Amino acid sequence: MQIAVIGGGLAGLTSAITLANRGLSVTLIEKKSYPLHKVCGEYVSNEVLPYLRAIGADPAVLRPASISRFMLTSPKGVILESPLDLGGFGVSRYTLDHFLYQVALAKGVQVRLQTAVQDVQFADNQFSLKLSNGDTLRAEVALGAYGKRSTLDRQLNRSFFAKRSPYIGVKYHLRLDMPTDLIALHNFEDGYAGISAIEDGRYCFCYLTTRENLRRHGSIPDMEQATLQQNPHLRRIFSEAEFLYEQPEVINEISFATKTCVENHMLMCGDAAGMITPLCGNGMAMAIHAGKLAAEQVVQYFENGRNRQALEAGYTLAWERQFKQRLQLGRAVQRLFGSPLLSEVAVGTLRYLPAAVRLIMRQTHGQPF
Ligand SMILES: Cc1cc2nc3c(=O)[nH]c(=O)nc-3n(C[C@H](O)[C@H](O)[C@H](O)COP(=O)(O)OP(=O)(O)OC[C@H]3O[C@@H](n4cnc5c(N)ncnc54)[C@H](O)[C@@H]3O)c2cc1C
Predict the structure, then answer these.
(1) For residue 226, which of 15, 20, 32, 90 sits 20 to 30 Å off, Cα-Cα?
(2) Is the pLDDT reported for residue 338 higher than 70?
(3) Treating both helix axes as pointing N-terminal to C-terminal, what angle do 283-303 and 10-21 enclose, rounded to 10 degrees?
(4) The domain spanning residue 233 has which CATH number?
(5) Structural domain span for residue 316
(6) Nearest C-alpha to atom 1 of ligand 1 is from which residue?
(7) φ, ψ for residue 98 (rounded to 5)?
(8) Could you give the CA distance from residue 340 to residue 178 in angstroms, rounded to a whole number?
(9) Quick one: average pLDDT of 308-330?
(10) CA dist., res. 117 & res. 29, Å (int)
């Protein structure tokens, strides 16, 4: 086998499709199966559209919501509004990942579902992957697209893995009377929540807060009542929306720490190489873009004499050019909205500085690719 892709999220699926389109033999290993819900705000920047269309995965068939306006509120409910220059679309991960999986199968990607990669060794110029079903796979090139945190990170001895991260994420799907072309970000003490339309007249409502906030209040409903609902816009959502899950999806250990984009000769893509804060609403586009950059380098590797050093150096250069600054700015923006006082001041000031708002958005987003 030529290429193993570890993880079938957005980075893994789109890179596998691209490589298969170029006639390369690709096996993708995903520890879960599709369709599946994921904690994510489900707003995708339109910058991904040219690439998704080019690889034969135009999301228009999923009838996503089209989103062109942005609203930000402070914990007290002060409103800032702005058009979204590039805009985006809203579609659930349940639908999007499943769709990309079907495209991958149609293009000839070999997919192993419900199989985790437990160990990756590199020796004699090839990778050896130990799978949870006992099999061993060998590949000439490996892409690490397994998301923000995996036991593989411990096995690779990556430094961020040892540090606990304070953040947790919670997600619901709901129905609500709200414009479908608007994405709203509502701050509250100790976090922020995003809401925007997805397919089928539903909305994704997702928030990031701290483990400490949850510990203080004991349960998710108590925390939502005591902190989120202090923001009048969030109070309205909780009182008027029809919540479509019995229980929310919840994840913890969300880390925005710096990571490396090549690890043990593997090209790391998406959150596995670095996660941008959800406040910037751009992690999915970055994952897809990183998958594209990795796939392009791998195609060159097979076409131009299989020089591994050139492969790793070329990918590092392309990745850093595209994402390094964006990730740094994302961390700074996250700090700005980390405290109620700072976010009150930030929203109160930025609402009179529309040019600054659009500049921050441009700097945290990429160009169409
Ligand atoms: C609260 C929150 C809100 C967000 N909101 C948005 C938003 O509105 N817009 C946006 O663009 N981004 C958003 N993001 C970010 C976005 O979700 C991620 O950046 C994106 O999902 C990264 O894609 P990925 O392919 O790197 O990883 P993932 O989509 O996480 O995929 C990784 C895959 O690897 C699999 N896997 C893991 N370990 C193994 C293993 N050992 N073997 C095999 N498979 C494995 C997993 O099961 C998973 O399917 C948000 C994130 C959070 C936490």
Answers:
(1) 90
(2) no
(3) 30
(4) 3.50.50.60
(5) 3-363
(6) 169
(7) -65, -40
(8) 25
(9) 94
(10) 7
Please give the single-letter amino acid code of residue 310: A
Q: Is residue 153 part of a domain?
A: yes
pLDDT given at position 214: 97
Contact 177, 39 (CB under 8 A): no
| Closest C-alpha residue for ligand 1 atom 17 | 40
Q: Which amino acid is at 138?
A: R
Which ligand 1 atom is at minimum distance from the Cα of 272?
26
368, part of any domain:
no
Most informative mutation of 10, 97, 286 for ligand 1 (most atoms within 8 A of CB): 10
- Closest ligand 1 atom to residue 284 Cα is 11
Closest CA to 296 of 21, 80, 97, 4: 21
Query: How far away, in angstroms, is 148 Cα from ligand 1 center?
Result: 6
**Total structural domains within the chain:** 1
Give the residues surrounding ligand 1 with Cβ less than 6 Å away.
6-12, 29-32, 39-44, 116-117, 145-147, 150, 152, 169, 194, 206, 208, 254, 270-272, 275, 278, 281-285, 287
DSSP at 230? G
Query: How many A from CA of 178 to the centre of ligand 1?
Result: 27
Over 70: is that where the pLDDT of 263 sits? yes
Say if 119 falls within a structural domain.
yes
Q: What is the pTM of this model?
A: 0.96
Task: Indicate if the pLDDT at residue 224 is higher than 80.
Answer: yes
Q: What is the Å distance from ligand 1's center to 83 Cα?
A: 27
So what's the pLDDT on residue 352? 78
User: Is 369 contained in some domain?
Assistant: no
Cβ atoms of residues 111 and 104 within 8 Å: yes
Residue with the larger pLDDT of the pair 108 and 353:
108
Distance CA 330, CA 104 (A): 31
Residue 69 confidence (pLDDT) above 80: yes
**Ligand 1 geometric centre to CA of 177 (Å):** 28
pLDDT at position 358 is 77
Pick the atom of ligand 1 nearest to 283's CA: 19
